[in-house]
Amino acid sequence: MSEDGRIFREAWIAGVKKYFPGEPKPGYITPWDETPEWERESAAAVFGQVRDFVRVSGGQTAKLTREQKGRFVALCWIAQIHKHIPDPKPGYVADWEALPEWQQQTDADIFEHIEQTF
Predict the structure, then answer these.
(1) What top-level branch of life does the organism fall under (predicted)?
(2) How far apart are CA 39 and CA 101, in angstroms?
């Protein structure tokens, strides 16, 4: 499970470095070994949800748009936020339309990275 979470986190960091305008907050690019436990658990859980979604679709997720893929990751992450943070800031649970472009692109990249591992 921790390897799944690590793969998710590395894809997140790669996306942040690629899409974030300017210098990202240190927390956005914290290495896996320094990532808080709840984020590690969340990363592994969302990796598993994407993996399972790809599997049960019989590989048909390739037909989804990047937006659909990114939305799936974002929604799964929001559920993890609610699981681990009793009263999250609104920005932590913002719907897709409210996310910055860099985060939308990063979420889509994460889905595609996981998708390509199967």
Answers:
(1) Bacteria
(2) 22
